[in-house]
Structures are given as C-alpha cells and as structure tokens.
Amino acid sequence: MKTTVFAAILIGLTTHLSAQNAQVTIQQDPKIDELVKLYTKVNSNTGYYQIQVGFGNYKKALDLLNQVEVDFPDWYSKIEFESPTYRVRLGRFKTKLEAERKYLEVRKKYPHAMLLKPEEKES
To answer: The whole model's pTM is what?
Structure first.
C-alpha cells in the first residue's frame, strides 16, 4: 500500500516537471575585442625567424621540447600544432643574420633542424 502511494506521488510529481526557458545576454566591454586582437598580434610569428627542431606526435614533440629546453635554456621555445603534426620551434629572431648564427649552433646538436622565415599575416 505504501509502495503504491509512494509510486503514485512520484509519478504525479514527475509529470508536472518542466524545464525553464531563458535567454542569456552577455554584455561585455567593446575593448575586450581590441585586447584579443592585440594579444593575437603580439603572440603571432609575424616578423620573427624561428628554427624548427623537429616534429611528430604530441609525446615525441613534448620529449623533444624538454630536451631543447635543457640544451638552450635561455631561448624561447614552444610546440605548435599544424595538422597533422606537432612542431617544436625555437627562438624569435628579428634579423636573418642573428637567426642564421643561432641556426648553425642548433644544427650541431639537431642536424635536421630547419630555419623558418617569418610569416606575413594580414591583420
């Protein structure tokens, strides 16, 4: 008897449930869009020569990045994903001369390294 009453109450409660309908409006300062554009521009490769030390799957790239950070601790290094592989890149050199000097140094340790020219991206 108790089970039947409990089941009837439970069924009655669940039939009257309904989801809430609402609309979310986000108000943000227009300067946030400007900051995002500025951040993207500052952190892009535009105007910098880089040395690509190697590439592969994520684990291989992470291991290579850790080794590069040991070999060249004062240089900027990162992993970039360009489908379908992860690429380990080193340095942010403004001039070709500086990049070529560092490239010769890197080639002693990583013979398959490549010197990359700066990419020109439209703003």
So the answer is: 0.59
